[in-house]
Design goal:
single chain, alpha/beta, Rossmann fold, UDP-N-acetylmuramoyl-L-alanine:D-glutamate ligase, Protein-Tyrosine Phosphatase, Chain A, 3 domains, nine-stranded mixed β-sheet, six-stranded mixed β-sheet, 20 strands, 33% helix
Length: 446
């Protein structure tokens, strides 16, 4: 796609929008960057900045619109653009147009960041140039330009990023799982799943799709795929794909079985991380990485920040930061990692999802429940309704300091203190990373 002398409107002045605006200007486009927030301080050379109310005047003379992930496709300005037949694409589709190297793309409700981080390390065992970007925090368009040709891209893709894609086509895609999340934006599970499925919609017979056999929603996606489909499974021995056999992670492909490592040797712990490792390993294998090198990386990779991250031990009690758990399914996976005796800090910006399965496990494994943020009242009500003892629920308002202080005062070995909010962070923090780092700061200052 040639952007020279095109007038491009970029909507959303967060990381990906700013990256897209910079790149498009360098490619010779006339760029306008717009954001509905008025109090932003942005200064990009050669880019016109328009903040505040977004009216149809922004569309005058526009040849193309790039939307940031945080911007819903349903806003009035984009509806007007559609009526005027102005093309609208996402920042990841811009990245696809710029990419000269194949893309390995991973989506799913949970596990994306761990899987893509691990995948990036695995790909480095074969390719001299590897870029890791997308929803992981680095704009994919930036990464695509940096890597150029003869490398490989590992992309974390969210449902938000897929809303405005039309031609995005990775060579290898993987869908880890689909559970209720982001329903305020997408409306229904059917729409949410459809956004996930767009990741493989353009793939052809030369491409690969990797699906979680253990997840009913992902397993049946094979019926809509036009590419080669392989499964991974933690629970079932497969005829082909990646699975667990005799406590070892293996890949079976073209009738050959490749043993990678045992579950005990795996550097990341927990059943959910076995799934993440299987998905990343199969993706890397299909990209041409040698299985011996895959094995070595699996044994040494220790996980990512904010995902069941050990912070410190104090007075015999261990503290874990799982701020990345922004939904109940992710928090359930964290709770399953520990045998019990958990002092759980949960709550935040409530997504309004059903809490039944989450609270069932809370009742089994949590000794004390400490609640913060907007979700505290609903979480407390639902916890009591699900027979969690009311006298074991403490509230810390909007203070992580108070939550950690309460946890410290009531905890005794062998209990562990776990921040796994099951909520977004926007009522108290800019993002889950800020929340996790604040938790670690407070814990390390005790």
């Amino acid at each position: 796609m040639d952007f020279a002398n095109k007038k491009v409107l970029v909507i959303g002045a967060a990381r990906s929008g700013i990256a897209a605006a910079k790149i498009l200007h360098e490619l010779g486009a006339q760029v306008v960057l717009s954001d509905s927030k008025e109090n932003l301080n942005i200064n990009l050379r050669g880019v016109e900045i328009k903040l505040g109310k977004q009216t149809d005047e922004l569309l005058i003379g526009v040849d193309l619109i790039i939307v940031s992930p945080a911007v819903p496709i349903k806003i009035p300005l984009l509806k007007s653009a559609t009526a005027k037949n102005i093309p609208i694409i996402s920042e990841v589709e811009l990245a696809y147009n710029l990419a000269e190297s194949p893309i390995c793309a991973v989506t799913g409700t949970n596990g994306k960041t761990t899987t893509v981080t691990l995948l990036g390390l695995l790909l480095k065992e074969k390719f001299s140039k590897v870029g890791v970007g997308g929803n992981i925090g680095v704009p994919l368009s930036e990464v695509a330009l940096e890597v150029g040709a003869d490398g490989c891209l590992a992309a974390e893709i969210s449902s938000y990023q897929m809303e405005a894609t039309k031609n995005f086509k990775p060579h290898i895609s993987a869908i880890l799982n689909v559970t209720p999340d982001h329903l305020k934006r997408h409306g229904t599970m059917e729409v949410y799943q459809a956004m996930k499925e767009k990741i493989f919609a353009q793939e052809t017979a030369e491409d690969f799709l990797i699906l979680n056999y253990d997840d009913e929603r992902t397993r049946e996606m094979i019926n809509r795929a036009k590419c080669k489909v392989l499964y991974f499974s933690r629970k079932v021995k497969l005829d082909e794909g990646a699975f667990v056999k005799n406590n070892s992670l293996v890949i079976k492909f073209n009738s050959e079985v490749h043993e990678l490592c045992t579950i005990d040797e795996l550097g990341i712990k927990g059943g959910h991380n076995v799934e993440n490792a299987l998905a990343a390993s199969l993706t890397a294998f299909l990209a041409g990485v040698d299985t011996d090198k895959i094995s070595n990386v699996l044994k040494t990779f220790q996980g990512v920040e904010h995902r069941i991250e050990f912070v410190r031990e104090l007075d015999g009690v261990k503290y874990y930061n799982d701020s990345k758990a922004t939904n109940t399914d992710s928090a359930i996976k964290a709770l399953e990692t520990f045998a019990g005796h958990i002092v759980l800090i949960a709550g935040g910006d409530d997504k309004g999802t059903d809490l039944t399965d989450f609270l069932k496990l809370v009742k089994e494994r949590v000794d004390y429940l400490i609640l913060v943020g907007d979700a505290a009242a609903r979480f407390k009500t639902c916890a009591v309704e699900n027979n969690f003892p009311a006298d074991k629920i403490l509230e810390a308002g909007y203070s992580m300091e108070k939550a950690v202080e309460l946890a410290k005062n009531i905890s005794r070995p062998p209990q562990v203190i776990l921040l796994s909010p099951a909520c977004a962070s926007f009522d108290m923090y800019g993002d889950f990373e800020e929340r996790g780092r604040d938790f670690k700061r407070i814990v390390n200052s005790l």
